[in-house]
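Appendix B. Extra example for self-study. Work through it before the problem class; the solution is given directly after the inputs so you can check yourself.
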Amino acid sequence: MTTLSMLLMAISVASIFAESSIYFREQFEDGDAWKSRWVESKHKSDYGKFVLTAGKFYGDVEKDKGLQTSQDARFYSASSRFESVSNKDQPLVIQFTVKHEQNIDCGGGYIKLFPADLNQEEMHGDSTYIMMFGPDICGPGTKKVHVIFNYRGKNHLINKDIRCKDDEYTHLYTLIVNPDNTYEVKLDNKKVESGSLEEDWDFLPPKKIKDPDAEKPDDWDEKENIDDPEDIKPEDWDVAENIPDPDAKKPDDWDDEMDGEWEPPMVTNPDYKGEWKPKQIDNPAYKGKWVHPEIDNPDYTADPEIYQYASIGVIGLDLWQVKSGTIFDNFLITNDPKLAEEVGNETWGATKDPEKKMKDSQEEEERKKREAEETNKKEAKEDEDEDEEDEEGEEEETDSKHKDEL
Ligand SMILES: *[C@@H]1O[C@H](CO)[C@@H](O)[C@H](O)[C@H]1NC(C)=O
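Solution. Structure tokens for the complete assembly:
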């Protein structure tokens, strides 16, 4: 056996083990059938309605159909179930597209993954979830991609800032969680953030803490500079800040009895030097900043399975929107980052340019219509002005007639 064929065999064996699986996929390409796959929560009676549409502009009217939020200032809560899966020893990839075609001011654009035991009809904002991922916009201050994991019963937010897209086009959001406890966030199939789960979330207490037994010695001198002991204040330094104006003269008509004793106004002393400060020199006793020694944190225990969830079974849209119109589409949950990238290319990648083209041409038409309207308005106004001039002429005539009569 050649080295090459052995290598090829090793690769194919590896790829059998790393079998690519799609746990969930939703493209909304079969009309109303999505209603049998998505369950609207009944926890509240006034949740906003999701409708199926490709929106005002799109790349492909069928393929770009997705769930759109259709009512302003509402909570939305719908979810879809898939066969329960664990991500043990495998990557977990969550991907979907979001299009804020309404030019969103404030609202969520994220998904939540839930454990398989979620009661979908009772799903609500406080339902325990496994992770929350996707864009969240509120005013100019909040434009971020949330990546929140539930770890040992508590939700932990990522401690990095990931900016989301805030335009009106469709964007692809991807989260990859790896069994080596690393992660990657992609936006439009490009990496925007990555790192270690342990470092970028505070799931675990810190590895090291300041030694509680260590204390800065009393004689530790942290002052970098000191007053120069040889610098002495000059004797002529202390003069008053303000002095009586030497040029002022008592007015001739000043009456001491009536006006009181005359005093010249005060002016700034040109010799005034301000507060005296000695020159600064390097402190010969300076020891540098004292660094608190660290010790291993007795409360810290490494967890090689931070990434791991035993039973993932429901994907949900559980969010609030002020201005509705967001379209969610192209949901994919898989163990294969490469496959997700391919699917992203085939879906978002294929329709993004035609989508932009349609929007551009709509805007061009709007612009033409506005221009035509403005021209019409201007012409109408000019006609009106002419009519008015005619009327004024007639009035003058009557006036002159009247004069004639006088
Ligand atoms: C996706 O598309 C990008 C840009 O065209 C390309 O570089 C990349 O290789 C594609 N990925 C896959 C997995 O096909």
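Self-check: Residues 348-405 form the longest helix (58 residues). If your reasoning did not lead you there, revisit section 3.
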